[in-house]
Amino acid sequence: MLAWVVGRMGWLALQPTQTPARWQASTVAVSSDAGNDRAEVAKVLNMNLFGRYQESAPVVERKQPVKQDAPQTRLSLTLVGLVASSNPQTALAVITHRGKQNTYGLNEAIEGTRATLQAVYPDRVIIRNSGRDETLMLDGVDFNKASQRSVQSARPAPSRAEPEEPSSDLSRIKQEILEKPQTLFSYIRLSQVKRDGELVGYRVNPGKDRALFDAVGLQADDLAVSLNGNDLTDAAVMAKLWTELSDASDFTLTVEREGQLHDIYIELQ
């Protein structure tokens, strides 16, 4: 028995040692159906089953229309001058409040009040006071009488067999300005020009009918600096200026053109 055990051990010692086989991961075949599954998921997402996210649209603020027949204001304001124009950028009003006079454009706040300038007409302006439109009449113009004239002018005029004179009739324009001096600025438009925050004059351009503009020798973009000797760059002289215009039958407008000053004589008679 001992001899068998010794022989067995000797035989095992002579056999080569077997190395264990190395483990390898089995190859897994990927089905092409996975790409199809992703495509199907994308289709489901694009269906927006739970709604589509959208950013809130900007709120558009509606502009309150100006009430032309607004009641007369009770604010202690005096309208000493104005420039009425179909172009909102050139419409101006010269308003005095508590002894202080300023020139305002549309939508500008009137100093010392909560009111803003909303519209400029030949004999009045409309201001918006705490959301309420109110009328401020040109100094010396009666609110009640002017309102009656507005109602009458709104009625259709009877038809005429004879045609009206053309709008370019210079004599008709001059007569209109003689009767209502403030209408001068509906034929000759003025817009403020400022440099470094300081008023340097008014840009001159033709208004609704350029007949007068061309007849007196004005040129587009002339810079008006004086009217009847009154310095237009000084707002304090505006009250005096409007008083002179109400009685004048001619005007001398001094303009700057290409660095040179030119006197433009406007005769209405």
Automatic annotation (TrEMBL):
Places the protein is found: Cell inner membrane
Superkingdom of origin: Bacteria
Transmembrane segments: none
Region (Disordered): 147-171
CC per GO annotation: plasma membrane; type II protein secretion system complex
Domain Type II secretion system protein GspC N-terminal: 1-138
The family this protein is said to belong to: Belongs to the GSP C family.
Name under which the protein is recorded: Putative general secretion pathway protein C
Organism: Photobacterium gaetbulicola Gung47
Lineage of origin: Bacteria, Pseudomonadati, Pseudomonadota, Gammaproteobacteria, Vibrionales
